[in-house]
Write the structure tokens for this entry.
Amino acid sequence: MKRRSKFVIILKILEISINGANKTRVVYEANLNFKEASRYLDMLISEGLIIKKGKDQAIYKTSKKGLEVLKKSKKFMDSMDSLELDISKML
């Protein structure tokens, strides 16, 4: 199995959390364990990319800043994909 970058994992968590998600959903959909998910969620909260609502049954929701990061990252990745296709056509 190919190892994912932290960047890809962060984007996946931001995507999962757009409409709100509990930690279990993040774990399963991002293919992480609970310890990893906790670390990523804590980091995303501290950076203002995710908002945590509640304590015991916490819901994680992508913030406006997180949505902007997600949007710009997807645009960048799309640009890189098209560049890769252009380069492969030249070879």
Q: What stands out?
A: The CA atoms of residues 13 and 26 lie 6 Å apart. The radius of gyration is 15 Å.
